[in-house]
Amino acid sequence: MKPAVGNDQIERDVILFFDTTLRDGEQSPGATLNTQEKLEIARQLARLGVDIIEAGFPAASPGDLDAVRQVAQTVGVEARLDKFGQMAPPPIIAGLARASQHDINAAWEAVRHAQRPRIHTFLATSPIHMEFKLKLTPEEVMAKVHEMVSYACSLCPDVEFSPEDAGRSDPHFLYKVLTVAIAAGASTINIPDTVGYTTPAEYGQLIRDIRAHTPGARQVVVSCHCHNDLGLATANTLAGIENGARQVEVTVNGIGERAGNTSLEEIAMALYTRRQVFEVDTNIVTQEIHRSSDMVSRYTGMVVQPNKAIVGANAFAHEAGIHQDGMLKHKRTYEIMDADMIGLSRSRLVLGKHSGRHAFRLKLEEMGYHLSDEDLGEVFFRFKDLADKKKTVTDNDIQALVADELYQPPETWVIENVQVQCGTGLIPTAVVRLRNAQGGFVRTEAGFGTGPVDAIYQSINHIVDVPNKLVEFSIQAIDEGLDAVADVTLRIEAPEPVGAGESAQGGAGRRIFSGRGVDTDIVVASARAYIQSLNKLLAAREERASDVAV
User: Fold this and answer.
1) Which whole number is the average pLDDT over 245-271?
2) Where do the H-state alpha helices sit in 214-316?
3) How far apart, in Å, are the Cα atoms of 340 and each of 82, 125, 289?
4) In this structure, what DSSP letter does residue 168 have?
5) Residues 37-77: pLDDT tens digits?
6) With the C-alpha atoms ordered 492, 493, 499, 503, is the resulting torsion angle positive or negative?
7) pTM for the complete prediction?
8) Is 270 exposed, middle or buried (0-12, 13-18, 19+ CB in 10 A)?
9) CA distance 496 to 510
10) 39, 151 contact by CB (below 8 A)
């Protein structure tokens, strides 16, 4: 069986996109994903054209191993369309593993069902990590790298090795470690700036020196993995490409631990927009960028900041008069790329309260959504309700409705009714009726609070009875106007670790759970967001219980 990434790809000027949204991205506090959500995101990443999907860290827990296995068994064997509309092989499915037989066995068990599996193993090489975390000498680290990469290669034809914290490692020691990894069979060597410490000049020089001073480096793929602690992840990755790297490790919306990872959409559009500078190509279907961004944002509950490059709400907005005047005269005066290149094209089909189901389906398909009859019915019901309340239903409104309806966790509790009473001189009071989706029974409770939202949450807590603390609450309008749809995002903290086991870096299980809710009524939107976060917490507790039972 030949390696999934051959020498022909090393010499071609094609940048391979290794997406780690489902692994490094999910390690963001609150970015809790269940197996079904991971599958949906993996399918979208395949449509987006990513070359490698790092589906998770299988050794973390039986649940994570099963999620990676399911991605490998589905997305990892399904052909897809490339950016030219031609049939293309499925993406490579990778699993992360520490340099230990236990982790490597778990990763192989999870990814081996894919048509093109990969094991990604790592070991720290910086002095501070070797001394204080690993408690190994440099000689012991090199021996372990040889042993574990060799073992991984005995199982899987495609093995990637990463020297963790390479950005703070001694370059000469790094050359030795990478030489050992390549000799042991690694076909990709990834250079992580694990703590986002390097500058573009330093990182670019590091990539160039590795290719120049490491025997065999020009016969394997050199990869970049940059964190954004100093806001330099994209710049560092582009510097790596300029100096010979041909794989980039990225996440959608740049999510990840601490300040996040290199943003997929920023690298993809930088290489597309400035292709005369970088002179490289990618396999990314750029028209799927916006939908991918929205899906990841909705599932993880991590809101994209308005001024975020490429996918932020303001990325293609022009308010200053001089900018608007220039845009009217020639759009390239202030816009260096077209919104439709990332899937943000606005259709001419305008919908209102008299629009029928067929017109609504056509509108969704123009926007890139292809729904089942069941999903269409649910979203259409929400649309008609909204159209009765708003004179104009915008594309942003429709997109928010689709996301709010489809990107939901497994539902333990469903909102049946919300009623509040508040105002000057009144004690904020709420009555909430919830239906248990599993048992089918309905419960109604009343609660009091410092405001209407607090009163609703107190009512819900009487019914659900799950200890938690609200740690973040925000609300924004989808569009302008007094009748704008409200989009509420919140995070709750569980009193004890629930969900996944430890992370690859040794962190504890997840404790933060996010929720998002959309409605013209901010009180209802707030209730939807809270119920979603509680359903995520309950699902994680159930998953943890099943893991312990196994």
Assistant:
1) 96
2) 233-242, 264-273, 275-278, 289-300
3) 18, 43, 10
4) G
5) 899 999 999 999 999 999 999 999 888 999 999 999 999 99
6) positive
7) 0.85
8) buried
9) 9
10) no
Q: How many Å apart are CA 34 and CA 383, to the nearest integer?
A: 27
Placement of tokens 């989706």 in the chain: 437
Residue from 490, 47, 473, 127 nearest 287 by CA: 47
Task: Count the neighbouring beta carbons within 10 Å of the beta carbon of residue 375.
Answer: 15
Return the SS3 of 443. Answer: strand
The arithmetic mean of pLDDT across residues 237-253, rounded, is 97
Show Cβ contacts of residue 107 under 8 Å, excluding neighbours closer than 6 positions: 58, 59, 68, 95, 96, 97, 119, 120, 121, 152
pLDDT score of 508: 61
Segment 204-209 mean pLDDT: 98
Residue 258 or residue 349, greater confidence: 258
| Positive or negative torsion for Cα 534, 535, 536, 540 | positive
Helix (H) or strand (E) holding 527: helix 522-549
Residue 3 backbone phi and psi in degrees, to 5: -60, 150
CB of 159 within 8 A of CB of 118?
yes
For residues 365, 368, 371, 375, the Cα torsion angle rounded to the nearest 10 degrees is -110
Confidence band, pLDDT 50/70/90 cuts, at residue 542: confident
In angstroms, rounded to a whole number, what is the distance separating the alpha carbons of residues 314 and 293? 14
Closest CA to 311 of 302, 319, 321: 302
Q: What is the pLDDT of residue 25?
A: 87
Entry field: residues in the chain: 550
Q: What is 101-163 written as a DSSP string? A: HHHHHHHHHHHTTSSSEEEEEEEE-SHHHIIIII---HHHHHHHHHHHHHHHHHH-S-EEEEE
